[in-house]
């Protein structure tokens, strides 16, 4: 196994050269003639919208996928990466966007999964322990080898992934969106580790959506869009504005919520909502807020901080373990649970976070999807039968109204693009004329044109008096649409900001769990220090 | 990779090819044994359609398979795998007898028959209730529980047929006969009553019930809100939950309907043909339902067609035993296993090659 | 007292004999399921193995040749299962059902073709069977109280496959939990993508697992027809494959608890043999059917999670798909 | 050739070395002597019987022979449907059709002799009986056997087990072996079986343990040479042979034919092969008992008469 080169001795050739890489999945051209060069010993960032092909590209580099065409060179030598094993042999370690760990194995078992060469584990165990000690010493990365992985916090699980990647040889380390699941604190610690690794001569390829991170830790940055590599910059020579525009391919002029509006009467009041999961972990703690007619309340937070649980409770999908909420005169609590159908009858519509799994039944025709959750719309004179014609007609009108293409109700949902699928889901919920609309990640994986359309529709719906609760991990989306912003962290509401006082920095602090105006001020100083 | 297949190919060509493959392999086995597969096939076809009464037998078997096939299919649509058709049918038989043994001395046949049919459905459904309930509430896999329930049903039936229900003074594990007017009339009896020549066979009017059941299942699955929810659950449980489908009760309801359909097989076999409850009368037909449902792509029309095929195979297969000393009807079991393998487990083996065959023009220019 | 003790030892010895095929099959299923492949087809492989063993033993006169044939036949079915489930991502349960039905048809069809005896093989004579082995000094120590009967009645006097079944349990433990292969095999059933990203082929691991399953089921089959039984009769597996699967679940996919589950089912069966027609104090004569269905009822109760819930391997039954 | 006889074997199969095989031997003798082809079918499932018998009649069989009481209902029904065809059935005596002959064997008498032999051959004083399906017919075997044992050795113990309650009990040799072993464990050193194919397992297990077995229906010496004390013969072969001959020669008569010791319809094997096991003393005792039964001095209780066994 190759030892990482020592600090300072930088290889003359680029550590990684990808030339003309293409990869197609079925109908999707995930990578289209992509070329990339990464300097040895540098931290190289890759950015791009959802679905731009970033993960695909690095998965090719780690041998997980095989490119349809193109050449790969490592330190000047052309290599063939027929499997992950080849990449590992060549010293490429990868931390995947979704962890590649066996959750109910111990840390050391997970590490041995890759390293064990001898038939029996006793020998391998000794070897891994000594390598682990070495890595701890060299890079400052330590973890209890006997712990079962699923009992570790996410940050530590990620550290196990990094250690695994380093065990592979540690010449090149690839991290695919490593911070998406981390708390700001954990993120900071990750970046500290990366600095050490870099100092030790490891070449690092970092994928992230967060321009702040790109600016903070990378030396170079490449931008992907729709499967192509569209630009490469020295980080020092660029700024966030330029990168953002490169990413989406044009100047970003999004609709924003300019008109400050007087809030209407309260339509949904939540008090003390809490949810403890089967494992006894508190997912949501004591959440209270009021939603008024004609306002959009944005819920900001890093994924996994209770927003999804909140949406599910309000939609009737989960029952709160404590607390209650009231809507349209009905109070829902553990003692008086409501199911999604009951919530819909109360005028609560719900655009789920995961449209492919929840919001749609992919093999169903669009017409059938257009009545999902609203079967009454499909009943005819004989209420025990569904009327296909009614269903199609309804779907057709939704499709026309929301510009869903192709506008054919008979086609299966699976054949539509993400943006069009999402438009149908929003059209369906919109069409119910709701008093409250719960929206989760309305524009995830949706292209910019559709984003604009969806945003406009949400604002129009609000103007018509609907109360909208918007959950999104996209800070920009929250800022653009919200009349008020609720910051969530660790299942709690950390603070609430009015549209006027909400800016990136303040909302970012809320997401980091730092709430209250005084605290914000203190936190801001701390961060800038 | 290539795009999806045209619908007609998916619905028609693929099942036919899969069945053809099964026949091919089975033919190979016959050849290996040293017999001519075509000659054997001919014996089976003649045995299924040509001899007097053989068509009646073929349709009688097919009727059984329609019920058990529909039972499997309904559960399939909710992505539940009900392997318990065998046990549910057996208990359905008990349902028929529960009604007939208690009521046929007192009530006229016209009243007993509908009650007995109801009994078959109720008992069959009840036997599927617990596996469904355990799946819905405790997550016990319905596949394993239904297998266990098959064994338990067989045990209960043996106990009853050798004990409390045995016809007095008899050794064979079976009940007394149902009063003649309380049985479902056979087709040859009716034909003879109308003055036609008809060789006797167990084919009886339950076949009409089977046809009605097939149509009913079609309406239920594709035309009712219940069916919509059931299919939603089958395609995506998260979507079903999102849409407000009460998942646990849906699972239970689906299993009960599935079990009731399997139980109805007893109306054909017990109330129509044997006119008494015989041990082991289900004879593996519950398992055949799996092959039928897979081959018929869980659609009532497909199931009716597949049932006819299997009816012919079962009837024709018996003829093998008469015609050959080296072959017997177990050849049909081999064929059945192969059909499940090819049209079920290996269903998508041919998708790739076929879609290339069907859609050469739809292929996108791929990067060199 | 000694009488009762000897009785107990004899019942346990019978238990051991009856549990042997269950142990083999359950260990077989453990390999497959730990690697992520559901195996409801244990029953079919067991039956096929039983047939192949008896047929070849009868034709060649050697039980060892029969054992080899059983392993071969059972592995062949295992590979069909692998081909459907691993290579073609077919439904594991459908494939298993197909294999069970196929086996119950093929054994009879081939049996009739070979022997024209209605699907059975000719009864095997002594040389064609695995014979009981009397352990050294069994007769001498038989009279020593307590330990004597334990050795002479319980441990001694079984055929070699019974001892092999007992050895299979620690062996399975070692392979699964102390070797690199076992580690990766288990990982393939928990998180196949982790195995893949570590540079090992999930497909090949799973294939090896189903092959091991085939081998063990083959041995179980050979035991049924050439060791415990003296020839093949149709459907002689009689649901043992399903019971083994239940034992595997009951044992939470762990070797030692699974062994005990097998022994529990074995006790039920052996007491069924001894209790038939016997009138017990208090309860009187237990209907034989009650004892016969007890394993199945027990399994359902276990599955319902009333004795603690079994958590299956996470990727069990999930085909590993790299690219959609 | 015009005469077309047919035989429908029952569960257990025609090579069960026992009941069905006995019939098969008679059928074979008939075929060998007359050159007539006999159509045959083996039932493997309860639902096949009626179809198989019907099919035989349909195919133009002049005589259809059903093997075993389980076919009673089916043959009763088909006999009505095909009044021109002749039918015969073994082990049934309760039907009434003008074209049906029924054979009844006095198995209790033969079993009595088996009991005498077992009691005398046993050293431990404990002997066993393994029955197949638990039905009155098999209880009749057991009952006669017990009487034979007790009359010979009053302090003997007889262990009894039935294999099961369904027809599959006729074909479960492994279970038979386990039952035999459990009896041996409890001290039995002679085990008599009346269990069809299941009995093969009984004999094998008994032989493996170095004890003695008593076979049933046919001479089962060949199953485990040197370990079979004797076999209780039930001359179903004669029944099969006679029926076919009669039917061919136009001498077929309906009604019940009873075959006991007197008619040589039952008995036990006494020949060269078991000369060593079945010692002259035993043979003597058996002969004496046989004479007494025929003369009526000993009355062997028939379980079927009152569904009970005096013990
Ligand atoms: N295994 C796969 N099978 C089919 N299509 C895939 C597969 N993996 C990715 N894709 C498709 O390829 C395209 C590029 O995906 P990729 O995961 O590389 O994007 P990404 O840039 O990493 O996006 P994100 O920021 O959301 O992670 C998308 O359209 C995606 O749907
Ligand atoms: N992960 C995926 N797996 C399979 N097919 C996919 C995947 N992602 C997208 N597709 C299919 O690829 C096609 C193109 O999808 P894509 O999302 O790239 O369209 P698009 O041009 O971006 O449209 P839109 O602007 O509406 O998002 C669609 O038919 C879609 O169903
Ligand atoms: Mg990605
Ligand atoms: Mg898109």
Protein described:
- The complex is a heterotetramer of chains A (529), B (368), C (324) and D (311).
- By secondary structure, chain B is mainly alpha-helical.
- Chain B is built from 15 helices and no strands.
- Chain B has helices spanning 7-33, 37-49, 54-77, 85-103, 109-138, 142-162, 187-193, 206-223, 225-235, 237-242, 247-274, 285-295, 300-323, 330-345, 351-358.
- The longest helix of chain B has 30 residues, at 109-138.
- The radius of gyration of chain C is 20 Å and the shape is globular.
- Chain C has one domain (2-303): ABC transporter involved in vitamin B12 uptake, BtuC, CATH 1.10.3470.
- Chain C is mostly helical and 324 residues long.
- Helices cover 69% and strands 1% of the residues of chain C.
- Chain D is globular, with a radius of gyration of 19 Å.
- Chains in contact: A-B, A-C, B-C, B-D, C-D.
- At the B-C interface, α5, α6, α12 and α14 of B face α3, α4, α11 and α13 of C.
- One magnesium ion binds next to α14 of chain A.
Itemize the secondary structure elements and their pairings.
The complex is a heterotetramer of chains A (529), B (368), C (324) and D (311).
Chain B: H1 7-33, H2 37-49, H3 54-77, H4 85-103, H5 109-138, H6 142-162, H7 187-193, H8 206-223, H9 225-235, H10 237-242, H11 247-274, H12 285-295, H13 300-323, H14 330-345, H15 351-358
Helix pairs in contact in B: 1-14, 2-3, 2-13, 3-8, 3-11, 3-12, 3-13, 4-5, 4-6, 4-11, 4-12, 5-6, 5-11, 8-9, 8-13, 12-13, 12-14, 13-14
Chain C: H1 2-34, H2 42-60, H3 63-87, H4 92-115, H5 138-141, H6 147-155, H7 160-178, H8 180-190, H9 192-197, H10 202-228, H11 240-250, H12 255-275, E1 279-280, E2 284-285, H13 288-303
Antiparallel strand pairs in C: 1-2
Helix pairs in contact in C: 1-6, 1-7, 1-10, 1-11, 1-12, 2-3, 2-4, 2-10, 2-11, 3-4, 3-10, 7-8, 8-10, 11-12, 11-13, 12-13
Chain D: E1 5-9, H1 19-34, E2 39-42, H2 48-58, E3 63-66, H3 72-81, E4 86-90, E5 100-105, H4 107-121, E6 126-133, H5 136-152, E7 157-164, H6 173-185, E8 190-194, H7 198-208, E9 212-217, E10 228-234, H8 236-248, E11 255-259, E12 266-268, H9 280-295, H10 303-306
């Amino acid at each position: 196994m190759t030892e990482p080169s020592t600090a300072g001795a930088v290889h003359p050739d680029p550590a990684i050269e990808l030339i003309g890489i293409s990869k197609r999945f079925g109908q999707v051209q995930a990578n289209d003639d992509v070329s990339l060069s990464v300097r040895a010993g540098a931290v190289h960032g890759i950015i791009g919208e959802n679905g731009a092909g970033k993960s695909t590209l690095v998965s090719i580099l780690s041998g997980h996928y095989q490119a349809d065409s193109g050449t790969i060179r490592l330190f000047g030598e052309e290599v063939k990466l027929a499997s992950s094993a080849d990449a590992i042999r060549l010293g490429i370690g990868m931390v995947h966007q979704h962890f590649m760990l066996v959750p109910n194995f111990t840390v050391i078992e997970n590490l041995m999964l890759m390293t064990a060469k001898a038939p029996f584990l006793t020998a391998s165990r000794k070897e891994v322990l000594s390598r682990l000690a070495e890595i701890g010493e060299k890079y400052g990365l330590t973890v209890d080898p006997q712990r079962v992985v699923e009992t570790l916090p996410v940050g530590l699980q990620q550290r196990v992934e990094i250690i695994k990647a380093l065990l592979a040889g540690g010449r090149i380390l690839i991290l695919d969106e490593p911070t998406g699941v981390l708390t700001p604190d954990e993120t900071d610690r990750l970046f500290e580790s990366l600095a050490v690794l870099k100092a030790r001569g490891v070449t690092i390829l970092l994928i992230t959506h967060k321009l702040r991170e790109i600016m903070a830790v990378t030396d170079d940055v490449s931008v992907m869009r729709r499967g192509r590599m569209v630009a490469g910059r020295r980080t020092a020579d660029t700024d966030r504005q330029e990168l953002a525009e490169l990413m989406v391919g044009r100047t970003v002029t999004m609709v924003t919520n300019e008109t400050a509006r007087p809030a209407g009467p309260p339509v949904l009041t939540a008090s003390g909502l809490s949810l403890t999961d089967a494992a006894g972990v508190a997912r949501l703690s004591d959440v209270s807020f009021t939603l008024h007619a004609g306002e959009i309340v944005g819920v900001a937070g890093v994924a996994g901080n209770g927003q999804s649980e909140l949406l599910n409770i309000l939609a009737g999908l989960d029952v709160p373990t404590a607390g209650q909420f009231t809507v349209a005169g009905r109070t829902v609590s553990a003692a008086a649970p409501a199911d999604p159908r009951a919530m819909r009858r109360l005028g609560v519509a719900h655009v789920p976070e995961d449209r492919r799994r929840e919001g749609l039944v992919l093999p169903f025709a669009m017409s059938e999807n257009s009545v999902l959750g609203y079967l009454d719309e499909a009943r005819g004179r004989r209420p025990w039968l569904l009327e296909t014609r009614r269903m199609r007609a309804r779907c057709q009108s939704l499709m026309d109204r929301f510009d869903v293409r192709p506008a054919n109700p008979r086609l299966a949902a699976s054949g539509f693009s993400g943006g069009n699928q999402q438009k149908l889901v929003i059209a369906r919920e919109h069409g119910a004329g709701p008093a409250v609309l719960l929206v989760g990640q309305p524009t995830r994986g949706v292209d910019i044109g559709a984003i604009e359309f969806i945003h406009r529709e949400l604002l129009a719906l609000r103007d018509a008096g609907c109360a909208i609760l918007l959950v999104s991990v996209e800070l920009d989306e929250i800022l653009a649409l919200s009349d008020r912003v609720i910051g969530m962290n660790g299942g709690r509401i950390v603070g609430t900001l009015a549209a006027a006082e909400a800016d990136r920095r303040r909302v970012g602090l809320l997401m980091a769990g730092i709430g209250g105006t005084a605290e914000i001020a203190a936190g801001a100083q701390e961060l800038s220090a | 990779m290539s795009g999806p297949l045209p619908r007609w190919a998916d619905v028609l060509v693929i099942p036919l090819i899969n069945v053809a493959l099964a026949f091919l392999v089975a033919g190979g086995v016959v050849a290996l044994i040293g017999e001519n597969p075509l000659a054997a096939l001919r014996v089976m076809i003649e045995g299924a359609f040509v001899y007097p009464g053989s068509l009646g037998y073929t349709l009688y078997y097919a009727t059984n398979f329609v019920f058990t096939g529909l039972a499997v299919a309904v559960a399939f649509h909710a992505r539940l795998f009900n392997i318990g058709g065998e046990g549910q049918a057996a208990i359905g038989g008990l349902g028929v007898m529960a009604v007939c043994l208690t009521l046929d001395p007192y009530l006229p046949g016209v009243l007993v028959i509908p009650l007995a049919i109801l009994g078959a459905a109720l008992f069959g459904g009840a036997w599927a209730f617990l596996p469904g309930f355990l799946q819905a509430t405790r997550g016990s896999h319905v596949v394993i529980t239904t297998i266990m329930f098959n064994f338990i049903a067989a045990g209960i039936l043996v106990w009853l047929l050798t004990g409390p229900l045995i016809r007095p003074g008899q050794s064979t594990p079976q009940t007394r006969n149902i009063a003649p007017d309380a049985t479902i009339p056979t087709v040859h009896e009716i034909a003879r009553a109308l003055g036609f020549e008809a060789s006797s066979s167990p084919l009886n009017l339950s076949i009409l019930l089977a046809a009605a059941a097939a149509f009913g299942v079609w309406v239920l699955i594709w035309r009712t809100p219940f069916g919509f929810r059931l299919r939603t659950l089958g395609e995506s449980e998260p979507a079903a939950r999102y849409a407000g489908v009460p998942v646990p009760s849906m699972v239970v309801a689906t299993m009960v309907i599935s079990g009731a359909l399997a139980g109805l097989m007893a109306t054909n076999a017990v109330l129509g043909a044997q006119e008494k409850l015989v041990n082991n009368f289900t004879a593996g037909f519950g398992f055949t339902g799996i092959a039928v449902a897979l081959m018929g792509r869980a659609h009532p029309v497909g199931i009716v067609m597949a049932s006819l095929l299997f009816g012919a195979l079962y009837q024709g297969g018996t003829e093998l035993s008469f015609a050959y000393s080296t072959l017997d009807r177990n050849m049909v079991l081999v064929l059945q296993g192969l059909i499940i393998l090819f049209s079920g487990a290996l269903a998508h083996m041919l998708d790739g090659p076929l879609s290339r065959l069907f859609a050469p023009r739809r292929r996108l220019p791929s990067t060199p | 007292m000694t009488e009762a003790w000897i009785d107990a030892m004899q019942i346990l010895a019978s238990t051991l004999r009856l549990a042997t095929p269950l142990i083999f099959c359950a260990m077989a299923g453990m390999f497959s399921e730990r690697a992520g492949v559901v195996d409801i087809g244990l029953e079919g492989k067991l039956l096929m193995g039983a047939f192949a063993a008896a047929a070849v033993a009868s034709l060649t006169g050697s039980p060892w040749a029969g054992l080899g044939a059983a392993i071969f036949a059972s592995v062949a079915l295992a590979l069909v299962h692998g081909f459907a489930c691993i290579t073609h991502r077919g439904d594991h349960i459908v494939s298993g059902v197909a294999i069970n039905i196929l086996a119950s048809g093929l054994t009879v069809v081939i049996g009739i073709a070979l022997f024209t005896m209605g699907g059975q093989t000719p009864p095997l004579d002594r040389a064609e069977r695995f014979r009981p082995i009397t352990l050294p000094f069994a007769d001498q120590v038989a009279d020593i109280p307590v330990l004597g009967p334990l050795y002479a009645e319980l441990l001694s006097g079984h055929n070699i496959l019974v001892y092999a079944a007992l050895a299979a349990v620690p062996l399975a433990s070692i392979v699964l939990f102390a070797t690199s292969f076992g580690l990766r095999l288990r990982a393939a059933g928990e998180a196949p993508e982790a195995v893949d990203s570590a540079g090992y082929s999930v497909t090949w691991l799973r294939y090896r697992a189903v092959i091991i399953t085939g081998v063990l089921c083959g041995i179980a089959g050979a035991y049924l027809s050439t060791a415990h039984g003296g020839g093949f009769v149709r459907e002689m597996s009689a649901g043992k494959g399903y019971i083994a699967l239940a034992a595997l679940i009951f044992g939470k996919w762990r070797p030692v608890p699974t062994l005990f589950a097998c022994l529990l089912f074995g006790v039920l069966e052996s007491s069924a043999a001894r209790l038939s027609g016997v009138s017990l104090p208090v309860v009187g004569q237990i209907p034989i059917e009650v004892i016969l269905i007890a394993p199945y009822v027990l399994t359902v109760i276990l599955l319902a999670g009333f004795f603690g819930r079994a958590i299956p391997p996470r990727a069990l039954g999930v085909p590993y798909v790299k690219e959609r | 050739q015009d005469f077309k006889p047919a035989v429908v074997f029952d569960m257990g199969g025609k090579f069960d070395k026992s009941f069905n095989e006995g019939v098969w031997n008679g059928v074979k003798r008939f075929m060998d002597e007359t050159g007539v082809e006999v159509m045959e079918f083996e039932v493997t499932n309860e639902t096949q019987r009626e179809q198989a018998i019907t099919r035989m009649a349909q195919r133009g069989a002049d005589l259809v022979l059903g093997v075993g009481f389980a076919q009673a209902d089916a043959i009763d029904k088909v006999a009505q449907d095909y009044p021109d065809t002749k039918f015969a059935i073994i082990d049934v005596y309760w039907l009434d059709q003008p074209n049906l002959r029924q054979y009844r064997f006095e198995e209790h008498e033969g079993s009595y002799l088996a009991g005498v032999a077992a009691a005398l051959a046993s050293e431990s004083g404990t002997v066993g009986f393994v029955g197949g399906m638990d039905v009155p017919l098999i209880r009749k075997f057991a009952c006669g056997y017990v009487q034979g044992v007790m009359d010979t050795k009053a302090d003997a113990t007889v262990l009894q087990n039935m294999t099961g309650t369904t027809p599959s009990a006729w074909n479960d040799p492994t279970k038979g072996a386990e039952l035999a072993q459990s009896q041996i464990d409890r001290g039995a050193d002679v085990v008599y079986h009346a269990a069809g194919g299941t009995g093969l397992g009984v004999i094998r297990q008994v032989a493996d343990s170095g004890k003695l077995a008593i076979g049933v229906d046919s001479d089962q010496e060949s199953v485990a040479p040197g370990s079979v004390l004797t076999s209780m013969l039930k001359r179903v072969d004669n029944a099969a042979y006679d029926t076919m001959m009669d039917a061919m020669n136009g001498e077929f008569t309906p009604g019940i034919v009873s075959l006991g010791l007197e008619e040589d319809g039952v008995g036990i094997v006494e020949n060269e092969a078991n000369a060593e096991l079945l010692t002259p003393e035993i043979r003597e005792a058996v002969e004496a008992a046989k004479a007494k039964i025929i003369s009526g001095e000993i009355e062997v209780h028939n379980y079927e008469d009152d569904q009970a066994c005096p013990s």
